[in-house]
Amino acid sequence: MKIGIYDPYLDDCGGGEKYMMTIASVLSGKHSVDVFWDDKDELKHVENRFGLDLSKIKLVKNIFTPKTSTISRMITSKKYDAIILLSDGSLPLLLCKKLFVHIQRPIEIKKFSLLEGIKKSRVTAFFCNSEFTKKFVDSQFGIAAKVIYPPVELHPVKVKKENMILHVGRFRVYHKTNGTKDYKKQYVMVEAFKKMIDHGLKDWEFTIAVSVKEDDENAFADLRRLATGYPIHFEVNKSNKELWEYYSKSKIYWHATGYGEDLMKYPEKAEHFGISTVEAMGAGAVPVVIDAGGQPEIITDSENGMLWKSIPELIEETLIVIASEQLRNELSKNAKTRAKDFTIQKFEENVFDLMTV
Fold first, then answer.
1. 185 lies in which domain range?
2. In the prediction, which pLDDT does 49 show?
3. Section 253-266 average pLDDT
4. Strands 252-255, 232-236: pairing kind
C-alpha cells in the first residue's frame, strides 16, 4: 500500500507527534509511507527526540498548507491507498481510497454544512488516543471512534531508586491550541513541593524534566527562579533514553495537567491520555497524579497509583507514599504491571487492524 501521513503540529515535537510518527514508523516496515512536510530538519528532530526509526519514510511536499489549492490536494491524494491525518476537528476533501482521521483531544464541532457532511462521509474511520477523548469525539461527530492507546517503550530498570519525585513534560508559557497558560501546571507543582519542604520534608528532591523551545527560554528562567533555594532540579531537552534514567531513579511521579481548569466547559485542558505517566509506571515510579482527563483510565486509585483533586490531596497522598515503604513497593509493583498494557507491540497490532477497515 502507498500511505500518506500528515500531522499539522509536527514542529511541536509533542506527544501527538510521537504518536503519529510512530504510526509512520510501524507502517513503513510493510508499506510505502510518505509524510507530508517540507522541513527535513524538523522530521529529523522528531526522530532523534523520540528514538524512532524513520529511515524508510519519504518526505514529500505538504499538500495541506493554504498555498495548495483544493483541486491540487485532491488530485495528489488520489495517488494514495490510504491517508492518515491528525485533525483538530476540521476535515479535508480527499480522493484517497481510505482516509483515517486521528483526534487527540476533546473538540467542539460546529453544525455540519452539506460540504462538511460530504467530507465526513469520505472518512473510513476515526480513531482516538483514549476513552476520554473518544467520548467527546463520538458526541460531536455522531460516530463510534476506535481507541488506540499511545505506545510506551519500556526498558529494564538498572539503577537504584532515589528519594526523587519526577515530572516530565513540555514547558509552555501559552498553549496555542487550547489557550491555557502553564498547561502542564509546572508552576503549581513547584509551589506544592516548596510547601512540603517548608513543612519539614527532608532528603527528597523534585526533578522536572522539560523540553523548552527557544522562544520560551526567558519565561522558563522565571520558573527556575521560583525554585531557587529548594531541592528542585531541571533537566532540559533530554532524549527518551536519558529520560528513562530519571524515570528509573525516581520513586514518585507527579502530573497535574488540568488542575484549576473548568474541565466540564473546557475538557481539552486536561491531559488527553498521559504517556509520561505510563513511562514512569513502567520504571516503577508510583504515580501521584490528578484525577482528570485520561489519567483515571491508566490508574486505579490506591492500587497502582494515587489520584488527587486538590493540592492538599496531592501533598497528603505524596507524603503517605513517602512514609510507607511497604505501600510504595506494592504500588510500584502494580504500576509496572499496568504499564505493560500499553506496549509498542499492542500498538502495532491495533494500527494494522485499523488499516484493514
1. 164-342
2. 80
3. 94
4. unpaired
